[in-house]
Amino acid sequence: MNAQLIVIIAGCILAAAIVGALLFLRGYSGKFTFDTATGTRPRASEGEGSTSGVKSNGRFKLLTAGVGAVFAAIVAKLWSMQMVSSDHYDELAEKNRTRVVTTPAPRGRILDRNGEPIVDNRSSLAIVAYRDLAENTVVVRHLANVLGMPYMAVLRNIQDNTEGAQSQHTIASDVRRSTIGYIMEHIDQFPGVSIAARTERSYPNGTLACHLVGYTGTVTQEQLDAQDELTDEERAGKIVYQSGDQVGQSGVEYYYENLLQGIRGEQTVRVDADGNVTGQAGAVPAKPGSDIKLTIDLKVQRACEEGLEKAFEVAENTGNSPSGGSCVCIDCTNGEVLGMASAPTFDPSVFVGGVSSDAWSQLNDDEGGHPLLNRVIGGQYMSASTIKPFTSLAGMEYGVYTAAMSSTCTGWWTGLGEAWGKKCWLESGHGVRNLETGIRDSCDVVFYDLGKNFFYDEDNPEGLQEMYRRWGLGSKTGIDLPSEAAGRVPDSAWKEEYRKDWSADQRAWNAGDMTNIAIGQGDILVTPLQMAVAYCGLAMGGVEWTPHVLLSAVARDGEGDAYAYEPKKRLTAKIETEGAMDVVYRGVHSMIYEESPVTAAHFTNLPVEVAGKSGTGEKDGEDPYGWFIAYAPFDDPKYVVCAMVERGGYGSTCAMPAVRTVLGALYDAPDDQTYTSGDSTR
Question: CA 519, CA 384: separation in Å to the nearest integer?
């Protein structure tokens, strides 16, 4: 007989009892009367209706009514609980007996454009147990000895509730197979201990593309707090994290977390009154995250990293001390990044299972060269002479230095007076140079004159900065990676604010500032990615595509793509002056083949012609920062390659080998020339 039927029967009996009692009381008057011989009726001395018997009878009626009301309320409540809200209370009762815990889902893989894995998953085994194991000190100590872990560490992991009080707590991750085998063979000695299958990130190519793909780690408290502060609208469509979840913390792992993170599974467990798990009631399996394809070609990626290694070797052989560098290759027709390398590198596998404090300190130590920094997107440097093509376009566009004008370079420029003289990198002088040959030979004097003319131009005193911004400098490129830097295009307003604690004369923008940025020195800052994208625009006649690393998201069933990235135009830099672009094109082409026979020898052995520019940034007390940027084919551009070496020396010496290595991979034409210090262009 179910509870609902019992309630109905009990309610009927109770109601009948109450009604019977009331009827009985109604028939009993409460007054004591009898007939006498004379037919008179005795009366109490108090008078009729005020005897104690009458009062007691009234109170009894009230008591009966009250009891009836109470019982009626009880019946009504039972009726509500069993007939109306029975499902609700059944659910609450079930919740007292069971708990739902989540199970992690494998992350999606990260593949190159050809489907080759860059980041994969591997199976691993973990030792897990419920929290009540902490009460069995003998087993805990035995387990600690087998795992080679301190007793307190094992105990702390068992008691740690970051994975949920009713979840199995991870005692040790990625445990050796031999250890697992021993525990399984002696499982009777480890009551309450279980083996759980997990997946861990694996890197089949080691550190390759480490800055690009990034790393994963346990969700931080700051991330959980930020999640809690989101509105319902902001939280819509996003993953809700729990303490202990593994999430992307940098690079592609971070940026495309919503695609890579899977859907948690659920497991229902039975618990006792103390909350200890006593069994399992059912489970919903986890769904793995989506695999994603990147625009990266592993062949080109390897070339970028090998090219940087070669660049460092050349820099050291020429007496310099390189501290870091970057190399990036972009398809200028659509913005696809084919390769992206930064040095020094790091091993993302150290983050699997949690990075140690010692390893984290080393990764963030100044003396270690900040290996976690992706210098392609986050490093900010003086552009050096790589900016001179855009400086030339500014001069021609605003008419302050036309294609017909020229300057005489003696190696020393005194355009602002002898006291403010500046040297050209070629101290013997270049002789007479115009914009085209000035780009070719990287003659500083031509661009000093151009910068001076801008400063004294009343109509467009900051036309140079406007041109830089027109090509996207001073702003983020919009690449789908976190932590991109914006760079800086300095002007009078910036200097006024930046130097606000200085005197008025020191805060004022001056001609020296303008001549400095005209050659890519001074306060101007760019990222290697910015310069690569600007040269993509130059190669494409002014059209810049937003750089991107995502190619597609693979469908969960592995059949086809669930989503494909749609290329986006970043900007179109229009140049109104007729013939201005041709001047620049001839300059960057001749820089490769005419300026230096040594440089030319490295490119004449390619099956296509190349255009490009070198650059050398100067910082007091440090070796020069070397740049080299090139695009190919010259007559039908497809690829742009940019390399920068910190403290590596002249760009045409140290950075050029990296660019040439990548071009060699693209066209299956390795360089057969040796690298020397004979390259003369800055």
Answer: 6
Q: What's the rounded Cα separation, in Å, for the pair 601 and 674?
A: 10
- Residue 503 has, within 13 A of its CA and on its CB side, a CA count of 2
Cα distance between residue 373 and residue 520, in whole Å: 23
Quickly count: other Cβ atoms within 10 Å of residue 19's Cβ. Answer: 11
Question: Cα separations (Å) of 54 from 28, 44, 45, 60, 98?
Answer: 11, 11, 13, 10, 59
Indicate the fold that domain 100-294 takes in CATH.
Penicillin-binding protein 2a (Domain 2) (3.90.1310)
User: What are the sequence ranges of the domains in the chain?
Assistant: 1-20+64-84, 100-294, 298-352+380-666
Cα–Cα distance list, 277 to 131, 132, 280 (Å): 9, 8, 8
Domain 298-352+380-666: CATH superfamily is DD-peptidase/beta-lactamase superfamily (3.40.710.10)
How far does Cα 287 stand from its chain's mean position?
22
Could you give the CA distance from residue 671 to residue 682 in angstroms, rounded to a whole number? 21
Residue 295, number of CB atoms within 10 A of its CB: 25
Q: Which residue has the higher pLDDT, 558 or 503?
A: 503
Each residue of 325-366: pLDDT tens digit?
Answer: 999 999 999 999 999 999 999 999 988 867 777 788 888 877
The candidate with the shortest Cα–Cα distance to 585, out of 596, 599, 575, is 575
Q: How many CB atoms lie within 10 A of CB 101?
A: 19
Identity of the residue numbered 338? L
**Dist CA 296 CA 211 (whole Å):** 13
> How far apart, in Å, are the Cα atoms of 578 and each of 68, 339, 387, 391, 403?
104, 35, 21, 16, 10
Is the pTM higher than 0.85? The answer reads no
Give per-residue pLDDT as tens, 444-494.
999 999 999 999 999 999 999 999 999 999 999 999 999 999 999 999 999
Lowest pLDDT segment from 98-112, 134-148, 309-323: 98-112
pLDDT at 235: 77
Q: Which alpha helices (H) appear in 186-239, and where do they start and end?
A: 210-213, 221-228, 232-235
Q: Which residues contact 560 (CB under 8 A, 6 or more apart)?
A: 554
**Residue 367: which residues within 8 A CB-CB, separation 6 or more?**
none
Q: Where are the beta strands (DSSP E) in 483-621?
A: 543-545, 550-554, 561-564, 569-572, 611-617
Strand partners, 328: 340, 642
Q: In this predicted structure, what is the pLDDT of residue 80?
A: 59
468 in Cβ contact with 390 (< 8 Å) = yes
Residue 384 neighbours by CB distance under 10 Å:
28
Determine the angle formed by the axes of helices 528-539 and 388-398, rounding to 10 degrees. Answer: 50
In 168-261 the beta strands, taken as DSSP E runs, fall at: 169-172, 193-202, 216-218, 246-248
**Pairing relationship of beta strands 110-111 and 292-294 according to DSSP bridges:** parallel
582, 588, 589, 595: CA torsion to nearest 10: 130
pLDDT at 64: 62
